[in-house]
Amino acid sequence: MLVNPAINHALAQTYAEKLGWKKGDKVIMFHVDDAGMSHASNKGAIQAMTNGIATSVSVMMPCPWVSEMGQYLAENKNLDAGLHLTHTAEWTGYRWASVSGIKASPGLSDMEGVLWSNVADVVAHASANEIETEIRAQLAKARTMGFSPTHLDTHMGTLWATPDYLDRYIKVGIEEHIPILFSAGNNTLMQQALAQGPLAGLNMLANNRSGSYDTAEVLNAIRQKGKEIWDAGLVVVDDLYLLSYDWEFPSDLEASDENLRTFKTQKYKELLDSVAPGITVILIHCTDADKGFSAITDSGNTRRGDLLSMTDPELKRYVQQQGFILTTWRELQAKRDNIRN
Q1: Angstrom distance (rounded) from CA 212 to CA 214
Q2: How far apart are CA 159 and CA 147, in angstroms?
C-alpha cells in the first residue's frame, strides 16, 4: 500500500525505538481476541500461546465460558492476558448481558436484556458514564477471578466509536496504569481505512463533524492522543492490523486443516513482509472450531485457520529467519515503566 510521505516523514522515532529497540526493528505481537466466548475459543487461544507463536490474549468477561479461561489464567500467571472490553453481543442465538447489570447501565441493554448486537445501537443508547461503568465492572470481575490484566482493548472497536467513549477507555487505563490498545505511530492500516471513507468517531476526534475530513488532520489528532497516553506513562504501539477476516479462502479448495493452515500461513507471511518498523499488533481469532461452534457463527474456518497458522512450525521459522521480534503487553509496559518522561 502506498503511504503518504507528507504524513509519515514527521515520525522521527517509532514507539519501538522509544522503548529501546533499534531503528528499523520490527516488533510484532500476535494477539488472540475472544477468549472466554466459547470452550472452542478458550482451547484455541491456549494452544496458540502455549504451542504456537501467539504472544498475548484478551478475554471477554461477559461471555458464558469466561470462568474456564479465568481459572486457567489464574493458574498460569506467566501468560500475557488482558481484557477484550465487551459492550456488544453480536451473534444471533448466542448472547450475553453486561457485567454491571441493567440497573447500573440500562443503556447497554437491548429488548432481550443483553448487550446490543452492533456498535451503532450502543452509540445511540449508552452514555459515556455507562460505558465506563461497564469497563470497571469487567476489570473488577477479572481481578475477582484471580488474574490481573496486562492490557485493555475493545471488542468490535466500540470504544473507538465516539471521542467520549475513547476518553473513558483512556481514562481507566491511565488511572489503573494498565496499557490500552492504541495505535498512534505509522498507522498504515488506519491510513488505508481513512482512504476508503469517513470514520465518524475519528472525524470527531479531530473536531470535524462535517463528514468530510483531511486525512493528515485526523492522523495528527490520533498522534496527539497517542502522545497524551505515552506522557501519562502508558505504552503506545505504532501499527495495528486486523485483516484475517477479510482473507477469502479459495472456494474451490476443501476447508481441510492442511489447506487452511497453508492458506493462512502464507497470508501471515505476506502481512509480515508488509509491516513497517515499529511495534505492530496483529489481531487474530484462534479457535479450535468444531461442528458445535457453527451454531454460534459461520466464521469457524477462518478462526481455525488462524489457530493452525499460529501453531505451524513453518510460520515460526519464518518469523525467526526474517528477524522479527515477538513481544507481549507485559514486556512493553515494563520497558515504558523504566523510561522517565
Answers
A1: 7
A2: 23
The model carries a pTM of 0.92
| Strands 278-284, 325-326: pairing kind | unpaired
> In the block, which residue shows the cell 450502543?
122
pLDDT in tens, 24-37: 999 999 999 999 99
**Does an H or E element contain 15, and which?**
helix 15-18
For residue 179, give the C-alpha cell.
496499557
| d(C-alpha 18, C-alpha 56), whole Å | 21
For residue 127, pLDDT over 50 is answered with: yes
What pLDDT, on a 0 to 100 scale, did the predictor assign at position 5? 39
* Least confident segment among 185-194, 246-255, 291-300: 185-194
**Whole-number Cα distances in Å, 40 to 68, 103, 206:** 11, 32, 40
Burial 255-290 (b: 16+ CB within 10 A, else e): eeeebbbbbbbebbbebbeebbbbbbbbbbbbbbbe
